[in-house]
Amino acid sequence: MSDDALQDLRFTVSGRIARPCAEVYEAIADPEQLSRYFATGGARGRLETGAEVTWDFHDFPGRFPVTVVEAEPPRRLVIRWAADATADGSGATTTTFDLEPVDDGTRTLVTISEAAWRLTPEGARGAFGNCQGWTGMLAALKVWLEHGITLREGFYA
User: 29 with 48: CB under 8 angstroms?
Assistant: First the structure.
């Protein structure tokens, strides 16, 4: 197998938000804000290293446990959460949020990467579904921070 052979399915989405890194980071880490624009059924627990929190979504009812692997304000968050069809058989994927200041710190480039899906039809469904979810989260985060709009309200139900 060559060094560039595909080992698992992974994806990256990114976008720019017209707010400084610290403000963007806080909107992701703070459960009250996260509940307003993303975890429509409620987020419980702040994203801090070692924390076990839960997220609930109206479109996917039930609490999803989330483990915070790394929290480095205001630039990086790494979480693990349950998933089927993972490459290593652990039943969890790793999602990384990297925040980079742009335009003299007035805007933030948010990059969300997720990895560890098996190279199977089930793995592809999981990866594509989560890619859609994180893209939606990024769009919702942008309009929440820049305009105070709750994009997901009424979107799924």
Answer: yes
